[in-house]
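User: Hey, my collaborator sent me this sequence without any context and asked if I could get a structure. I don't really work with proteins. Can you help?
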Amino acid sequence: MSTLRKLVSDVRSMHKLLSTDNLITDRAVASEIRNNSLLLVKRETNLRRLWATDTLFTTLSCLEMTQVPISDCCTYTDPCQVSRSVNRLPRIAEGNYQYIIQGVYSINAMGGNGTKFKEITINRYMNLLSLPIIKNQAYYWIANEGYLYVSNPNLQSVRVSALFEEDVPNEIRYSGICSNHVTDEEWCMNPLDREFFCPGYLEKQVLELTQQKLLSTYFRINDDKTSDNKDDQVSKQ
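Assistant: No problem. I've predicted the 3D structure and written it out in structure-token form, which is a compact way to encode the shape of the chain:
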């Protein structure tokens, strides 16, 4: 799998103007690569593709959770408790039907996936609470500006695989028990050097779209500035 740094280098090598223009920073190129990748991936996931791939989703191996009353995320006054992520998650990509989340799981004693929770909206979950039925199914939802909630209140951590639109901070990527196993190299790694989660068959399209956007944006601006300078010189003569 390619790193973001390699993809930035590939974009620059596609056109001489991009390779020699110092005004276009690697950060700007990387941002455009991310935007175009998200555009194409959302198209594919809306068509129910890529959901089973491991080249798309970022996995948070042990997202730290804490117990809170359900009123933390809604106006429901039931005394029941749920668990909520300690930290607000980076922005998760959204498709036509739902957040692009491959799965939220409990963590078993061996550190692997345990129970897979079912996605639900908070409004639907409140409706379930009002029904006189036994609720054996465990649910999760996103609410309160980016927090993850799970109906099981006793969880200390969960595993989450999702398509994030932003870089995941180390404080979230290595939270909870995972913080005990992270190396200095992993903690200090530049985001450009991490694997970039884009399916291989979409890479060429992503690079071409990025090149086109950069050329049309930056060099149009330069042309406009040149034209304005010429107009100013003519008006002074």
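In plain terms: Confidence is low (pLDDT under 50) at residues 223-228. You can pass these tokens on to your collaborator as they are.
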